[in-house]
Design goal:
3 strands; 3-stranded antiparallel β-sheet; mainly alpha; single chain
Length: 310
């Protein structure tokens, strides 16, 4: 790997992020091999070409990338390389990229998602006896799933919540999520349905979790979420929810993240699309959301929460 690539990758801490960039560089190498060019020759070409010609060359790069990956991954890899080009000093423009480059689109593909029947299947299997379960207990894992369904949190956020963040005395139960556990470090709130809230409080009392201990995992590491996801994959397989799209394209998976999508979809079905996105932590919706009073926010959530109880 050349020094520019090494320096670029060293900017990131997470191994998963680094691996994505390495895969992107592999695609760039495929393109360079196809063009019979060195990286330096290609970069100098991008620096010297007229604007229109630059994006014609980048379109060729997209066409090479898309040969054996999904449309979503094609865009991910290209955007990674585009960022790399910018950082090492290639004069490119995001607006021109959007106007001049055509990315592959998903056509006639079946999108897979969770409905109530699928969620109930998953929960039934999650609560069945399993001697090999090493994720913290069947009851705890099922409760974690219900918490994600009811609150729209990201998977990692759900594993980092403590009793101190939960206002059981309010209706609906409110979760105050500090910036220390949320994406982009932006504090926000969400809520829980009554049934889920009561079961969660019982679990906290049963496990004797103190106010500042995490509820679902005691020693959080990046590996913790991986273990939970692997365990969920086994549940998904048993529920018959593994899809051809997942195997072929590595997308549209039914994963722990799908509970968040179900949460947002539920609010969309009740004509509260922006509200659901705000509770799930989409930043562009939060500014509008917090202009409503707490009482108004509670009323809106309460009108939807029956569809989030399992």
């Amino acid at each position: 790997m050349n020094k520019d690539r090494e320096l670029f990758i060293s900017r990131f801490e997470k191994n998963a992020t680094k691996n994505n960039y390495l895969k992107s560089f592999n695609k760039l190498d495929d393109f360079l091999s196809y063009k019979n060019m060195s990286e330096d020759m290609f970069l100098n070409q991008l620096r010297s070409l007229e604007m229109f010609k630059k994006y014609e060359v980048l379109q060729e790069l997209v066409n090479i990338i898309k040969k054996d990956v999904s449309p979503r991954v094609t865009k991910l890899y290209f955007d990674s390389l585009f960022k790399y080009f910018l950082i090492i000093g290639i004069p490119l423009d995001y607006t021109q990229k959007r106007i001049r480059i055509q990315f592959p689109r998903i056509v006639n593909k079946r999108f897979e998602g969770l409905d109530k029947i699928g969620i109930n299947k998953l929960l039934r299997i999650a609560q069945k006896p399993n001697e090999n379960n090493n994720v913290g207990g069947r009851e705890s894992f099922a409760m974690y799933m219900k918490t994600l369904i009811g609150s729209g949190m990201r998977e990692t956020e759900g594993l980092k919540i403590t009793p101190s963040m939960i206002h059981f005395e309010e209706f609906p139960t409110r979760l105050d999520l500090p910036g220390t556990i949320t994406k982009y470090s932006i504090p926000r709130e969400t809520f829980l349905p009554t049934k889920t809230s009561n079961e969660l409080r019982d679990l906290i009392e049963k496990k004797k979790v103190n106010q500042h201990e995490t509820i679902f995992t005691k020693n959080w590491t990046e590996r913790t979420l991986v273990d939970y996801e692997v365990y969920f994959e086994n549940i998904r397989e048993k529920a018959g929810l593994a899809t051809p799209n997942r195997v072929k394209y590595q997308q549209n998976d039914i994963t722990l993240h799908s509970f968040r999508a179900y949460f947002i979809t539920t609010f969309t079905d009740h004509n509260q699309d922006s509200f659901g996105h705000a509770l799930a932590g989409h930043t562009k919706d939060l500014t509008v959301y917090f202009r409503k009073s707490l009482k108004d926010r509670q009323i809106i959530y309460a009108s939807v929460m029956k569809d989030l109880e399992f």
